[in-house]
Amino acid sequence: MPQMIFVNLPVKDLQKSMAFFKALGFSFNPQFTDDTAACMVISDTIYAMLLTHEKFAGFAPQPIADATKVTEVLTCLSRESRGDVDAMVNAAVAAGGKTYAKPQDHGFMYGHGFQDLDGHVWELMWMDPAAVQQG
Description:
Blueprint: E1 5-11, H1 14-23, E2 27-29, E3 37-41, E4 46-52, H2 53-57, E5 74-78, H3 82-94, E6 104-105, E7 109-115, E8 121-127
Parallel strand pairs: 1-4, 5-8
Antiparallel strand pairs: 2-3, 3-4, 6-7, 7-8
C-alpha cells in the first residue's frame, strides 16, 4: 500500500467549508464524511480531513489555533500549469477565500496561494519539469 497523508484541519462550519472546496473542484469520500468530519480527496494518496472544532479538539494536544490570527501550517499543492495555479486561486476568492500575497514568478517555478474560510493557508505551485533534476 502506498504511503498516504491526511492533513487534519479544524473548521468552524463544516458544510460551508465543504461547499468552498467543492467550488475549487475537490470531492469528498462519503465513507469518511459525516456531520463532524469530511474527507476531502486531493489525490489518490493525499487527503484533507475537515473536522468540526469539537471533533478536532478530541485529537489535538493543544488548543485550536485561530488561523485568521496565527499561521499554524502552510499546505502547498502542486498544479499542472501556471494557469491551473491562477484558476484555483481565482476560484478560491470567488468562493469566499482571500489571497495573502502577490504571485511569485521565478521563471522555472510559479506560485500563488489563498486562505480558506477558516484562514488556513493553501499555497499552489507549478514547476517546469525541465528544471527538476532527476537523480
